[in-house]
Fold:
Amino acid sequence: ELADLLPIARPGVSRHLRVLRTAGLVTVDTDAQFRIYSLDPAQLTTLDEWLRARSEQWAQRLGALHTEIARGKRDSVSTRHIESKEAS
Structure:
């Protein structure tokens, strides 16, 4: 059923599910020829915490990069202004 909902071939769905299972994000039960996948909420909480920490870290780094870019632009404008006065 899941494979029918996704725009990728069944082998691709199987590979993705295997990665999720290996990471512990889903569990799988077998019922005859069917595999029933369930999300593991505890692992999703752990993943969410990890992602939140990385997100905060990247936000700080990108903020610092923005500051440096703005400082570089300001210094560049200031240098051009000084050079144009010297040329006059």
The helical segments are 2-5, 10-22, 41-87.
